[in-house]
Design brief:
- The structure is a single chain.
- Helix 2 runs parallel beside helix 3.
- The relative contact order is 0.17.
- The protein is of the alpha+beta class and 123 residues long.
- The chain is 33% helix and 30% strand.
- The protein has one domain.
- A 4-stranded antiparallel beta sheet has the order 1-2-3-4.
- The protein has 3 helices and 4 strands.
């Protein structure tokens, strides 16, 4: 049984969206100490989870977000910003790439997000 399966059993709601929100909040809390620029993460109403990843080049900082497009379509979105921008109040974030996650099941959505995360961090 996966860690996600175990966490899902603890969640009392049957609503998939609520389950995803709760799981993303738990992941954010677990990863909080590893995030150098927590207050600079991309933000948005449909952005559930953002974790820092390496940029494509040395002068970039990358972020991987989990965004909801519709009830059955989520996106893993790779954002970058220049290191010189990160000190600004609202750094310019550029969407570099998005991967479709066509599913409604929380475990599958977060597993797909985790796969992209591991690729971007080089694991």
């Amino acid at each position: 049984m996966t860690i996600l399966s175990e966490l899902l059993k603890e969640i009392k709601s049957d609503d998939n969206l609520e389950q995803i929100r709760i799981l993303c909040d738990k992941i954010s809390l677990e990863e909080k100490e590893k995030q150098k620029f927590l207050d600079k993460h991309p933000k948005g109403p449909n952005l559930f989870l953002v974790l820092e990843v390496p940029g494509r080049i040395d002068n970039e900082i990358g972020f991987l977000g989990l965004e909801r497009e519709s009830s059955d379509l989520y996106l893993a979105v790779f954002y970058t910003t220049k290191k010189s921008e990160i000190e600004k109040e609202n750094p310019v974030m550029i969407k570099q790439r998005a991967w479709n996650i066509k599913d409604h099941r929380p475990e599958k959505i977060l597993t797909s997000y985790a796969k992209q995360y591991k690729i971007l961090i080089g694991e």
